[in-house]
Structure to design on (183 residues):
């Protein structure tokens, strides 16, 4: 009986882990719902990712700020690599600079410990960010989208917090897909 229980728990945790194919499918669907920028991104010559800013509610809590910094690192790694590729391409037809301004408006990520002890009673997790795209030469906003992803309380409870911890990957992948689709 004990072995069967352990196998079931291991299977459940594995099933709730972030599957790259699922993350990609969600990113494709969610990015397609976002308003495209007024100008194709490939028409720019250079691309700059500006420093992420944080909403007031995040700045007020040390724990939220730490989670925000973790998100910022994941965001900068993936989006920065994409922009490095675009900058290295040295497009002959592009001109000007695209500025990408990420703003983490709010977040709430339930810890694995809280999920273990409180389960669904710990509440939902979410990440809510704004992404602003500016023509660096003129200052004109060519795109401004909000990306929000939630992990509901019950799924968080069943996954013992794994769905909460996957939120970073989902949001970063959605932004990456959005930028790629509009290049």
């Amino acid at each position: 009986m004990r072995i069967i229980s352990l196998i079931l728990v291991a299977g459940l945790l594995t099933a709730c882990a972030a599957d790259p194919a699922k993350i990609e499918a969600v990113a494709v669907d969610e990015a397609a719902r976002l308003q495209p920028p007024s100008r194709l991104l490939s028409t720019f010559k250079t691309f700059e990712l500006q420093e992420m800013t944080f909403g007031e509610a995040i700045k007020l809590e040390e724990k939220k700020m730490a989670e925000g910094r973790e998100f910022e690192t994941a965001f900068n790694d993936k989006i920065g690599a994409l922009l490095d590729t675009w900058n290295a391409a040295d497009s002959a037809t592009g001109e000007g600079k695209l500025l990408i301004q990420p703003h983490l408006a709010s977040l709430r990520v339930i810890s694995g410990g809280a999920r273990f002890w409180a389960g669904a009673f710990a509440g939902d997790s979410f990440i809510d960010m704004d992404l602003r795209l500016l023509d660096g030469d003129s200052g004109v906003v060519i795109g401004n989208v909000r990306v929000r992803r939630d992990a509901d309380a019950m799924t968080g409870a069943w996954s013992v917090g794994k769905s909460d911890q996957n939120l970073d990957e989902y949001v970063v992948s959605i932004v990456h897909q959005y930028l790629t689709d509009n290049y």
In short: Residues 2-181 form one domain.
